[in-house]
C-alpha cells in the first residue's frame, strides 16, 4: 500500500471520530434547547436566542470557496518555485479537507505535477487514472485535459509501459505549449515511434519545433537531424520530408541524406542534383558547407560530358542569393530532360585564387566539355588564360561578354541594355520632349542614369538632368521639390477664366493646352489657393530597385506631377499592382520578358515551379538559357571542348526564356529588349529594340 493511501486512511479515521463527536454535541444542544428557561435554571431575561442545529446528511466543508482558492494559489506558488515536497503536501491537504466531488481538476494536476517532478510515477497514476471517466475531467478545459494526458503518459514512460505512453502522450503532444514539455515528450516518443512510423514522427516533431523558442529549437534540431540520418532508408522517405518542409529544416537534412544514399548506390548524377537542390533552396541550412564539400568530392567521366559550374562558398556570402538563383536554374535545366546529354559538375572555391586551379582540374580530371559561367566578374579575369585559348566556349548567365575573351558567350541581360532601350523608346515616341531621370542613390541607379542620358543625347533628345532619391526614406518630398525647379506652379483664380489656354472644367480640374490637370490646394499666404504644377519636362525615366515603385508613383501623383511619359526598368514588370494614378500619364517599363508571359508549360519552367514553388527570376532564367544552349549544341559525335566550341559558334540566333539573342560572326551579342505598357492592370508588349551591352 502506497504512503499516500495509508495517510488517506489515517486521516479518514481521524475525521470520522471528529464527525461523531460533532454529532453527539449537536444532539445535546438540541436537548438543551427543548427545555424552558425555568427548567434550565437560567433567567429568561438573560437567555440568548441560540439557533437549533440539525444534523445534516452531507458533511459540512471545512473551508469556503474563497479559502479553497487561496489554498490552491498557495500550493501552486510553491510548485512554481520548485518547492515540490511542500507543494505536494499543500495539494494533498486540499484533497483531504474538501468534498471529493467538488475539488477542481487543478488540485489533482498540481499534486500530479509534484509527484512527476519527485519521480513518483505510481502516485501519478493512482491519483489520475480514477478520474478518467469522471465529471471532473469531462468538465475541465482543453489545456487541463492536455496536462492530464501528458502527466499520465510521462508516468507510463517512467514505468516502461510503452503502450500506455503512446496511448496517452500522443493525443496530447500536438497541443503542448511549453518548450520543456515538448522537448521532454519528444525524447520519450522518439524511440517508440522510430520503430513504427519514423517518417511521420519526424514531420510531427519538426512541426512542433517551429513553435518553440530558439534555444529549444536548437536542441530539437539536433534530435530530429539524428533521427533523419538514422531512420531515412530511401529517397522516397526523404522525399516525404522535404515535401513537408520544401525550404526549411528538416527538408535540408532529408535531401542531404538522400544524396548520401544515392552516392552509396553509385548514382552520382542524382546525388549531385540532391546537393544542388539543398544549396539552392535552403539558405539557412547548417549543412551548406557539407553539401558543397560533397559536391567537390563527386567526379564524372569524360563520357558523361560534364559541364562545370564554379561557385564561391555560400557560407556567410552576401552574393549567396544570386548564386542560388544560378543553382536553381542548373537544377531545373538538368531535371527537365529525360535524355541527358550533359551532367552539371558543381565545384566550390573558398578563395578567388582557387578558381583557375578548379577549372584546370575539371578539364583534366573529368574532361569538362564546357561551363556555365563565369558567374562573378573577377572570375573573368582569373580565367583569362583558359578562356582566351580557343579550347573552350563557355556560356555566362550573369556577365557581359568581353571582346578580350572569345571563349565566353553571354545570355545575360545587362542593366546597360535596359537604360539604352528606355532612351530609344523616348526617342521613338517623344523625341522633342525634355526628359529627366529619377533614380535611387545607389551605384545601379547612377549607372542607369548615365546610360540613359548618353543614349538620349546621342539620338538628338533633350536631357535636363538626373535627380536622385533615398529609396529607404519614408517619402521623397525633397526630391519632388528638386523636380519642381524644372517648371512653374500656376495659380487658378477668377482671372484664369480670361486665359484662353485655360479651361476650368470643375472646381478641382482644368484643361491647359488640351491636357487635363488636377488642382491642388496651396497653403502659402493667408488664403487657400488652387494651383497646379506645369513641368518643363515631359518624360521621367525611373530605374527603381526598391521594389516599392507603386508607392513611389503614388507619391509623385499626390504631390502634383502630372501628364508624364514614365518609363521604369524591369523591376516594374514584377508588379501587377501599379496604382490607378492616371493623372501621372502613360506608364511603361523595359525588360526582356514579363513574368506574366512565362510559358508555364515549358518543361524547365514546370520543373522549377514544382520544385521551388515559385516562378524563376531573371538570373535563373538566364542560367536555364545557358544550359539549353549547351544542350542544343551537343551532338553524339562531340567528344572534346574544342568540338563543342565549334558547334556552339554555329548558333547565331537563340530564343531563350529570358529573351531573344543573336551573335555576329565575331561573337558580338545583342539582346531583344521589349517595351511594355501598363493598361487595365496588365503589362502588354508595345515595342522592342535590339541592344548590345557596350
Key features of this structure:
9-stranded mixed sheet, flat
Structure commentary:
This protein has 694 residues and is α/β, with parallel strands linked by helices. It is 49% helix and 16% strand. Strands 6, 7, 14, 15, 16, 17, 18, 19 and 20 form a nine-stranded mixed sheet that branches. Strands 2-1-3 form a three-stranded parallel sheet, with helices on both faces. Helix 10 runs antiparallel to helix 11 (198-209) and helix 17 (320-335) crosses helix 26 (618-633). It is flat and about 100 Å long. It starts with a helix and ends with a strand. The model is unreliable at 1-58 (pLDDT under 50).
Query: Structural class of the secondary structure composition?
Result: alpha/beta
In one word, what is the shape?
flat
Major beta-sheet overview:
9 strands, mixed
Kindly estimate the percentage of residues that lie in beta strands according to DSSP: 15-25%
Report the end-to-end length measured between terminal Cα atoms: 93 Å
Uncertain segments of ≥5 residues (pLDDT<50)?
1-58
Number of alpha- plus pi-helical segments: 27
Count of β-strands: 20
Radius of gyration (Å): 40 Å
Amino acid at each position: 500500500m502506497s504512503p499516500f493511501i495509508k495517510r488517506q486512511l489515517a486521516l479518514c479515521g481521524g475525521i470520522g471520530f471528529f464527525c461523531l463527536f460533532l454529532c453527539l454535541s449537536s444532539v445535546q444542544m438540541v436537548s438543551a434547547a427543548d427545555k424552558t428557561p425555568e427548567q434550565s435554571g437560567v433567567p429568561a431575561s438573560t437567555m440568548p436566542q441560540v439557533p437549533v442545529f440539525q444534523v445534516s446528511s452531507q458533511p459540512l466543508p471545512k473551508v469556503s470557496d474563497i479559502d479553497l482558492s487561496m489554498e490552491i494559489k498557495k500550493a501552486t506558488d510553491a510548485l512554481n518555485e520548485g518547492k515540490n515536497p511542500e507543494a505536494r503536501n499543500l495539494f494533498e491537504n486540499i484533497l483531504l479537507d474538501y468534498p471529493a466531488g467538488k475539488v477542481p481538476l487543478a488540485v489533482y494536476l498540481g499534486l500530479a505535477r509534484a509527484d512527476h517532478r519527485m519521480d513518483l510515477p505510481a502516485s501519478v497514476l493512482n491519483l489520475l487514472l480514477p478520474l478518467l471517466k469522471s465529471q471532473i475531467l469531462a468538465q475541465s478545459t482543453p489545456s487541463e485535459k492536455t496536462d492530464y494526458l501528458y502527466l499520465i503518459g510521462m508516468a507510463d514512460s517512467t514505468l516502461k509501459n510503452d503502450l500506455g505512453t503512446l496511448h496517452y502522450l500522443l493525443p496530447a503532444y500536438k497541443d503542448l505549449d511549453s518548450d520543456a514539455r515538448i522537448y521532454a515528450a519528444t525524447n520519450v516518443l522518439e524511440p517508440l515511434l522510430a520503430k513504427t512510423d519514423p517518417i511521420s514522427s519526424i514531420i510531427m516533431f519538426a512541426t512542433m519545433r517551429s513553435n518553440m523558442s530558439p534555444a529549444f529549437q536548437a536542441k530539437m534540431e539536433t534530435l530530429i537531424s539524428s533521427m533523419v540520418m538514422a531512420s531515412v532508408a530511401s529517397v522516397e522517405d526523404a522525399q516525404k520530408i522535404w515535401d513537408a518542409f520544401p525550404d526549411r529544416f528538416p527538408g535540408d537534412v532529408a535531401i542531404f541524406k538522400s544524396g548520401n544514399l544515392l552516392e552509396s548506390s553509385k548514382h552520382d548524377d542524382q546525388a549531385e542534383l540532391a546537393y544542388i537542390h539543398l544549396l539552392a533552396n535552403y539558405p539557412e541550412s547548417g549543412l551548406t558547407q557539407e553539401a558543397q564539400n560533397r559536391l567537390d568530392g563527386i567526379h564524372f567521366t569524360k563520357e558523361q560530358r560534364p559541364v562545370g559550374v564554379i561557385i564561391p562558398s555560400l557560407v556567410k556570402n552576401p552574393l549567396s542569393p544570386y548564386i542560388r538563383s544560378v543553382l536553381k536554374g542548373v537544377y531545373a535545366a538538368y531535371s527537365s530532360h529525360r535524355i541527358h546529354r550533359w551532367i552539371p559538375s558543381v565545384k566550390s572555391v573558398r578563395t578567388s585564387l582557387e578558381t583557375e586551379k578548379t577549372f584546370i582540374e575539371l578539364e583534366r580530371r573529368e574532361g569538362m566539355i564546357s561551363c556555365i559561367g563565369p558567374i562573378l566578374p573577377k572570375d573573368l579575369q582569373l580565367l583569362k588564360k583558359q578562356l582566351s585559348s580557343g579550347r573552350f566556349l563557355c556560356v555566362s548567365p550573369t556577365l557581359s561578354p568581353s571582346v578580350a575573351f572569345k571563349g565566353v558567350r553571354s545570355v545575360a541581360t545587362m542593366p546597360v541594355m535596359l537604360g539604352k532601350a528606355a532612351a530609344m523608346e523616348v526617342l521613338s515616341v517623344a523625341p522633342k520632349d525634355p526628359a529627366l531621370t529619377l533614380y535611387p542613390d545607389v551605384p545601379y541607379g547612377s549607372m542607369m542614369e548615365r546610360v540613359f542620358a548618353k543614349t538620349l543625347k546621342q539620338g538628338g533628345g533633350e536631357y535636363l538632368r538626373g535627380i536622385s532619391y533615398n529609396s529607404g526614406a519614408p517619402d521623397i518630398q525633397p526630391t519632388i521639390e528638386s523636380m519642381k525647379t524644372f517648371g512653374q506652379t500656376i495659380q487658378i483664380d477668377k482671372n484664369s477664366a480670361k486665359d484662353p489656354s485655360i479651361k476650368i472644367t470643375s472646381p478641382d480640374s482644368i484643361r491647359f493646352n488640351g491636357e487635363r490637370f488636377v488642382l491642388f490646394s496651396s497653403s502659402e499666404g493667408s488664403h487657400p489657393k488652387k494651383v497646379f504644377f506645369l513641368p518643363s519636362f515631359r518624360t521621367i525615366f525611373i530605374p527603381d530597385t526598391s521594389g516599392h515603385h507603386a508607392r513611389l508613383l503614388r507619391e509623385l501623383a499626390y504631390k502634383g506631377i502630372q501628364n508624364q511619359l514614365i518609363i521604369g526598368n524591369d523591376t516594374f514588370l514584377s508588379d501587377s499592382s501599379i496604382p490607378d494614378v492616371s493623372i501621372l500619364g502613360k506608364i511603361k517599363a523595359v525588360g526582356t520578358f514579363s513574368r506574366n508571359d512565362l510559358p508555364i508549360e515549358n518543361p524547365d519552367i514546370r520543373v522549377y515551379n514544382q520544385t521551388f514553388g515559385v516562378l524563376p527570376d531573371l538570373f535563373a532564367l538566364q542560367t536555364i538559357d545557358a544550359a539549353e544552349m549547351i544542350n542544343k549544341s551537343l551532338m553524339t559525335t562531340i567528344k572534346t571542348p574544342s568540338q563543342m566550341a565549334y558547334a556552339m559558334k554555329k548558333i547565331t540566333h537563340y530564343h531563350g526564356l529570358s529573351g531573344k539573342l543573336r551573335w555576329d560572326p565575331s561573337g558580338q551579342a545583342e539582346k531583344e529588349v521589349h517595351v511594355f505598357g501598363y493598361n487595365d492592370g496588365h503589362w502588354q508588349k508595345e515595342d522592342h529594340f535590339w541592344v548590345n551591352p557596350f
